[in-house]
Task: inverse folding
């Protein structure tokens, strides 16, 4: 039987591991947002805000892109955590095999991994939020609020990646998934420009992607009352329901594929 | 919670009767698709004994261990561990097991101490108790000086000792060791044997898989010989040697191709003979007399070695193959 206490044992182990390894990871946690905010926001923003394009934004471009990027960065972080570390636990370091011969169950293991994932995503998004405030992209309050929807979206990707990775033999497919799924999502989910700018036939595709809902929800939370084209007419509850449903389904699938892998 | 059958531990057992087995398997079978990895085996492991599974690569040893540790669902037959069914009471069974897997799976990024600590937590042991046991186990595994070292910086022998120490953090009733010393140099193996022997002296029940005869002879009270998923013999090392071999073995080494030409002259020597590529093993209860006879017949060998019979000879006899190819 899976219990919360058992899952928290796994969280504790992950935390102890993080304490030993954070130095190597923290750099990208800070560097990614800084590069994005500086490059995309400040430099590109000057061009866009001065421009006379048809997509006149009611908010500065820096604000627009920061609210998209906090969600997109969480997606990338979530995917990363659900990809290589899972394969490592199963195949390379085999640490998961050590856990499932203790009283903890596979479900406890997956629950622990995803709870820790949520904490880690909240932290990474928090770093982004603080930097966004420092860059003047968002007021401190809205910046902090945006942590929640961003982390929610990140968790959906982490759970999905976990379910997928647990079925893989090597990481070639992960590299491909990163290249051909995660990277394109940056472009087609409204992160850098409103999806109304996409060709008409691509718009429905954008509505179907999880990142679109994470980005949209983040903007609704951080910029209450903002109108088109920053947000679309999709109701907020649809954004929430999409992400919650994805987390739930992927979570269940992650437990299933991990069971099949660790208990052959 | 389920009522669990109480198993008297060897330490408290005063009743003079066969203690009920800690592990009991009847017709235990494991298939992967159509492939039968474990083929309807029967065995019983009693409290306080060191029980060996001896067999070559692919015999089905690890598959059997994984069923006992409840991580591999059984395909057919019956298996109870501590009188419990692995399918229903996996967590309860695992809480009383110590598992040393064939391949190390320590968290290499953590220190020696941290690895023991998180394992204690997985077993839901209170922190002060974990801290006390860590001290004992570091002592036991001779890793006191290395307590703060990251696992990736330890030698193979040290990592193996740590895996064993980790398996003991919950003071298990049964310790399962899958090839505990494979891949270690002779010195590291002896250190490990020493530790395992101590465990045994302290009354632990051990299951050990190995392809090393000397290991089985050193450590096991009883063992089964497995081959291609089946148990081909069972008994104590001495019993097996008596039953399937002789007291002594005379090994003759020949020049390439010379075995053939000498077979006539060797005919009928000893109790039994085994012809390998460039060697002939002759099983006998009286090596001296045999050697005299070999010289009398003028056998043209290059080298001669007289040794005690071992489990290797038993295996060779039972399967016609050597244990380590
Ligand atoms: N998950 C699996 N899927 C398919 N076949 C498997 C699986 N695990 C083991 N086998 C096969 O079952 C057989 C028995 O394997 P097992 O690992 O139990 O042998 P073993 O006695 O432990 O061997 P070794 O001494 O090499 O460790 C082998 O032929 C192996 O290839
Ligand atoms: Mg094996």
Result:
């Amino acid at each position: 039987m899976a219990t919360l206490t058992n899952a928290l044992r796994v969280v504790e182990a992950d935390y102890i591991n993080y304490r030993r390894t954070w130095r190597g990871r923290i750099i990208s946690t800070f560097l990614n947002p800084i590069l994005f905010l500086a490059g995309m926001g400040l430099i590109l923003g000057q061009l866009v805000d001065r421009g006379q394009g048809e997509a006149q934004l009611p908010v500065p471009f820096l604000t627009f892109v920061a609210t998209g990027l906090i969600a997109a960065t969480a997606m990338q972080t979530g995917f990363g955590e659900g990809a290589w570390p899972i394969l490592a636990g199963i195949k390379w370091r085999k640490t998961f095999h050590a856990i499932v011969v203790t009283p903890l169950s596979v479900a406890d293991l997956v629950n622990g991994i995803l709870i820790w994932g949520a904490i880690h995503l909240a932290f990474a998004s928090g770093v982004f939020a603080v930097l966004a405030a420092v860059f003047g992209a968002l007021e401190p309050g809205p910046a902090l609020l945006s942590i929640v929807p961003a982390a929610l979206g990140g968790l959906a990707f982490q759970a999905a990646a976990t379910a997928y990775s647990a079925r893989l033999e090597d990481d070639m497919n992960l590299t491909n998934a990163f290249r051909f799924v995660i990277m394109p999502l940056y472009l087609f989910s409204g992160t850098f420009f409103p999806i109304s700018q996409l060709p008409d036939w691509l718009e429905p595709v954008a509505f179907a992607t999880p990142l679109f809902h994470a980005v949209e929800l983040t903007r609704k939370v951080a910029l209450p009352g903002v109108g088109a084209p920053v947000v679309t007419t999709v109701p907020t509850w649809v954004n929430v329901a999409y992400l919650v449903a994805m987390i739930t389904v992927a979570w269940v699938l992650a437990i299933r594929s991990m069971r099949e892998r660790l208990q052959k | 919670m389920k009522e669990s059958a109480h198993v008297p531990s060897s330490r408290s057992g005063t009743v003079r009767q066969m203690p009920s087995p800690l592990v009991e398997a009847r017709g235990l079978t494991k298939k992967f698709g159509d492939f039968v990895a474990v083929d309807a085996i029967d065995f019983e492991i009693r409290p306080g004994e060191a029980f060996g599974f001896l067999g070559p690569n692919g015999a089905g040893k690890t598959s059997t261990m994984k069923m006992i540790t409840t991580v591999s669902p059984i395909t057919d037959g019956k298996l109870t561990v501590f009188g419990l069914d692995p399918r229903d009471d996996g967590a309860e069974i695992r809480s009383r097991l110590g598992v040393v897997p064939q391949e190390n799976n320590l968290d290499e990024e953590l220190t020696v101490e941290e690895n023991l600590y998180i394992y204690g937590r997985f077993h839901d042991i209170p922190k002060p108790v974990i801290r006390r046991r860590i001290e004992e186990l570091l002592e036991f595994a001779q890793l006191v000086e290395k307590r703060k070292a990251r696992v990736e910086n330890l030698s193979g022998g040290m990592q193996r000792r740590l895996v064993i120490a980790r398996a003991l953090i919950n003071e298990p009733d049964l310790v399962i060791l899958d090839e505990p010393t494979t891949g270690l140099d002779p010195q590291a193996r002896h250190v490990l044997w020493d530790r395992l022997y101590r465990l045994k002296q302290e009354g632990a029940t051990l299951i050990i898989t190995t392809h090393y005869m000397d290991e089985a002879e050193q450590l096991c009270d009883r063992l089964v010989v497995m081959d291609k998923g089946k148990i081909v013999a069972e008994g104590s090392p001495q019993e097996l040697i008596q039953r399937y071999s002789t007291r002594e073995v005379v090994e003759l080494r020949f020049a390439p191709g010379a075995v053939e030409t000498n077979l006539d002259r060797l005919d009928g020597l000893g109790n039994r003979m085994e012809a390998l590529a460039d060697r002939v093993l002759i099983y006998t209860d009286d090596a001296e007399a045999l050697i005299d006879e070999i010289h009398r017949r003028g056998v043209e060998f290059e080298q001669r070695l007289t040794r005690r019979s071992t489990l290797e000879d038993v295996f060779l006899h039972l399967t016609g193959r050597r244990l380590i190819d």
Summary: The first helix of chain A runs from residue 4 to 50.
